[in-house]
Amino acid sequence: MSLFRDLHERDTPLLLPNAWDVASGAALAEAGFPAIGTTSLGVAAAAGKPDAEGGTRQETLALARGLARLPVPVTVDVEGGFSDRAEDVAALAAELASYGIAGINIEDGRSDGSLGPADRQSALIGAIKDAAPGLFVNARTDSFWLPGHEAETLERVRAYTGAGADGVFVPGIAEEADVRAVVAATPLPVNVLFLPGRVTVDGLAELGVRRVSYGSLLFRAALRAAVTTALTGGPPEGAPSYADVERLVSGLDGLR
Predict the structure, then answer these.
(1) What is this structure's pTM?
(2) What's the alpha-carbon Rg for the chain, to the nearest Å?
(3) In what order do the strands lie in the sheet with 167-169?
């Protein structure tokens, strides 16, 4: 897990692609990405469930067990923790750590568009760190993701830093002044969501961002590619063969 932490201290930000199943994770690892995350939208949609409503605990654990076989560190999106009870969320974190998972994202946004109380979220972060001290806890605040909460951002970043988080994640943030303010508010690595046309990795690096996540972008692009292929009858250039996919997955059997 120290390897995953070290990836946040390099000269360039950690570019983190987000998988939704074992095959996508294996393909991204083979492509050379040094760590893999998961996308809660991809996991939920693949199971026919809505995202961010706490209904994919079992799917998330099953995916984590599969991805733990990858030869690179894996961080798992656990939405809000799939429970209102701190002890349940702490137990989930400990279980993920027991698989060899390197980190988690834990968010304060709620499906009704509100933010959970900052003090409760801070207590949750503390409980997770007590249960799984080696797990990299990326504390996500949805203050920019959900309308009307932007003014709470710095207060929440500072609170989650003080609670023992290992990194902070502010999806939706893009303006230079906003990014600078978040980076200045915490000594922890700051994670930003890649927003095509609004941010660049080089630009974020200059502002001090240490991690850039793709979120659900790759999953949504894969859906589009599947539909386009079905409509046109021609696969995208470079699409893996049947044998390629078999090799990707079967190659994990000897790992971990």
Answers:
(1) 0.96
(2) 18
(3) 14-16, 211-213, 190-193, 167-169, 136-140, 103-107, 74-77, 36-38, 18-19
Count up the domains in the chain and report the number: 1
- Which segments of the chain have a pLDDT < 70? 1, 254-256
Q: What is the DSSP letter of 1?
A: -
Distance CA 244, CA 238 (A): 11
Here the tokens at position 222 are 């894969």
Q: Is residue 242 one of the residues assigned to a domain?
A: no
Q: Has residue 112 been placed in a domain?
A: yes
Which residue range forms the structural domain that includes residue 25? Answer: 2-220
Contact present, 192 and 173 (Cβ < 8 Å)? yes
Name the residue among 208, 118, 117 with its Cα closest to residue 162: 118
**247 assigned to some structural domain:** no
pLDDT digits (tens, 9 = 90+) for 135-159: 999 999 999 999 999 999 999 999 9
